[in-house]
Amino acid sequence: MTEPVIEKPIPEADDASKPFYEGGMAGRLMMMKCSSCGTWRLPSRSHCDECLSDQYTWEQASGRGVIRTFGVMHQKYHPGFFPELPYNVTIVELEEGPRVVTNIVGAPNSELRVGLPVVVQFEKHADSAIPKFRPV
Ligand SMILES: [Zn+2]
User: How far is the CA of 61 from the centre of ligand 1 (A)?
Assistant: First the structure.
């Protein structure tokens, strides 16, 4: 008898994050940009970190950034992630400023370093696309 396959949980869009996930399905990294001061922010924050305005537009970010920090996960927590062990958990600082929690793909964990330039690459699922990053 074989063990049942347990899938990796995939985030689902809600009303506030729908433009982010729809953009991802089209290969665009969408972020919120403050209409008052121009500061970019992660979805789905209700207010600007700089001026507290709640006014914003959805804009396509460049998809470029650098690794600010990372760790490599060896511990088995959720069975859906077992096939990916050991995987990295990385914070990428986008050129626009927001810092995204993500994974670096397309390079072994041993080649990751702080300051490494990376570009977005989407991991597509049935109803969403998750932004991952790869070295430039
Ligand atoms: Zn602002």
Answer: 17
What protein residues have CB closer than 5 angstroms to ion ligand 1? 34, 36-37, 39, 48, 50-51, 53
Confidence band for 8, pLDDT divided at 50, 70 and 90:
confident
Domain ranges of the chain: 18-135
pTM to 2 decimals? 0.91
Condensed to tens digits (0 to 9), the pLDDT of residues 112-129 reads 999 999 999 999 988 889
- The Å distance, Cα 58 to ligand 1 centre, comes to 14
**How many whole angstroms separate alpha carbon 26 and alpha carbon 106?**
20
Residues 136 and 107: their CA atoms lie apart, in Å, by 10
Looking at per-residue confidence, does 72 or 125 come out higher?
72
Compute, in degrees rounded to 10, the torsion defined by CA atoms 90, 49, 25, 104: -10
- Ligand 1 centroid – CA 100 distance (Å): 19
